[in-house]
Amino acid sequence: MFKLFTRDNLKLGLVLGFIAPFLGIYGYYLLKIKTSDSTFWEFLRFLLNKQYGQSLLTSTLTFSLMANALIFTIYANTDKYKTAKGIFILSLIFAIPLIILKVFY
């Protein structure tokens, strides 16, 4: 199984770049919110609440992109540039709506 993560190809980078932000959102929930009585699904509903969750949404999405930055750094430092390119592409795809959300809403 771990042999899969040592490969250097674009598809692996795209998959990892897609999954890592969701793991980052869950990590943010575990670090910041889990201490309260709310469940993960209540946390997601609160994030999507336009009146209250807007600033929390942008900080959570920023934290989720840091998960991509972490795995991008790992793959770039191990000379797996095709995989790193896939992670970078998905990071840009996730970052553009985040910037629009942060600037215009």
Describe this structure in words.
The structure is a single chain. The protein is mostly helical and 105 residues long. The protein has one domain. 76% of the residues lie in helices and 0% in strands. The longest helix is centred in the first third of the chain and has 24 residues, at 10-33. The protein is globular and about 45 Å long. The relative contact order is 0.20.
Overview features:
single chain; mainly alpha; globular
SS-derived structural category: mainly alpha
Q: Using only CA atoms, what is the Rg?
A: 15 Å
How many distinct helices? 4
- Total strand segments: 0
Helix content estimate: over 70%
User: Biggest β-sheet, characterized?
Assistant: none
Strand content bin: under 5%
What is the compact description of this entry?
The protein is 76% helix and 0% strand. The protein is built from four helices and no strands.
Q: Mind sketching the topology for me?
A:
Layout: H1 10-33, H2 40-47, H3 54-77, H4 81-104
Helix pairs in contact: 1-3, 1-4, 3-4
